[in-house]
Amino acid sequence: MRMYDIIQKKQRGIALSENEISFFIKGVSDGSIPDYQISALLMAIYFRGMTDEETITLTECMANSGDRADLSSIKGKKVDKHSTGGVGDKTSLIIAPMVAAADMGVSIAKMSGRGLGHTGGTIDKLESIPGVNTNQSCDDFTRIVNETGLCIIGQSGSFAAADKKLYALRDVTATVNCLPLIASSVMSKKLAAGSDCIVIDVKCGSGAFVKTFEEAAELAQLMVKIGVGAGKKTIALITNMDVPLGRSIGNSLEVMEAADVLSGDGDEDLTELCIILAANMLYVANAAPYDECIKAVTKTLNDGSAKRKLAELVSSLGGNSDYIYNPSLFGESKVSAFLAAERSGYIYRINAESVGKAAMILGAGRSKKEDSIDHNAGIIFHHKVGDYVKEGEVLATLYTSKIDMAQNGIELLFRAIKIKDSPPKNKKLIYRTIGGRV
């Protein structure tokens, strides 16, 4: 079997066999297939797509390409959550502590990724806290979940090994926005992580990898089908990503905002979404009726237990938990700049994708897989869509390490914001839920 023939077959739009997909993933894992041929097949899949059967096979092969976590020693139900990627999406840092702090017999065992394209990654955000080590072994992963009720780790070489390579190459070959590749990447990690139940936040809109509701629904249905087929209770929520989520974009900035939400002082939309996602995680695990789950996770915000749980997670990963309570410890970027309103009126639109790209220009993300990131770089919005602003009023503050980066970021951010005389119509925060609560 030759990789050349597999690439050519997919270029012609012909479905790949189970043996061909298995050969491909084995070659990705052991290094026998070079990056340029992997990238060529990724591009062919991007343009030609995959059948559901191909995608399910690809997911299973990726999940089996490394170790699979054995969580059988952890009592109660294990629930995992994943977001398909958005701008300002720091929900994992919020809902995992909420679920663990609810103390309803549900644990969070989660593997997360780094920044991909114009979106950020949970691991980059966690690692903005000094000392945090997200590279944990299977044994340590299990131990931390047992001790704290939650753990979030990076994807090591031992978990879904092939996906780590594919994830990095997709980022630099413009093949991120491909439903079969998104679904297989997400679900291979979820299956390898070994949880009993999975909740998926499928982002939809300008800042998401899937722009339309129709695409988001197709992706959600595909991932639920993969999860249920693998014996996992799976539910997907399609949520709005036309605008950035919350007010902060950038790694340490988002950690600070997550801490604000966990104190009960966060952005209303971000807080509402996190409450709903956290409640669904408890509900899908049969912890309690849905209304009781809502009350339980809301209580963790009001009594401070969720914030304490995040600090506990940081400590368990070797980090300094003081940063959760004292955000000034993060320090400031070398350069800060301000974007002011060019006219008075209502903020009609903030294009989330452009905001994500602006944050990447500032140093908060990667343009190629070898890039390092500036953990303090990013953007803080002082106003949201629907707010009335006056000419000259500061809309956002940008943080970076170089003046030219700040100027480039301002130019892109300026084009991302539209101000009109009348306010926009309110859009739903959650469009649809796919898959039944069990």
Descriptors:
single chain, 438 residues, alpha/beta, Transferase, Pyrimidine Nucleoside Phosphorylase, Chain A, domain 3, Pyrimidine Nucleoside Phosphorylase, Chain A, domain 2, Aldehyde Oxidoreductase, domain 3, 3 domains, six-stranded mixed sheet, 17 helices, 13 strands, 46% helix, globular
Q: Which CATH class of the largest domain is shown? A: Alpha Beta
Largest sheet: 6 strands, mixed
CATH topology (fold) name of the largest domain: Pyrimidine Nucleoside Phosphorylase, Chain A, domain 2
How many DSSP helices? 17
What count of domains describes the coordinates? 3
Task: Tell me, briefly, the overall form.
Answer: globular
> Approximately what portion of the residues adopt beta-strand conformation?
15-25%
Give me the secondary-structure category. alpha/beta
Mean pLDDT: 93
Q: Spatial order of the strands in the main sheet?
A: 3-2-1-4-5-13
Q: What distance separates the N and C termini?
A: 43 Å
Oligomerization status of the protein chains? single chain
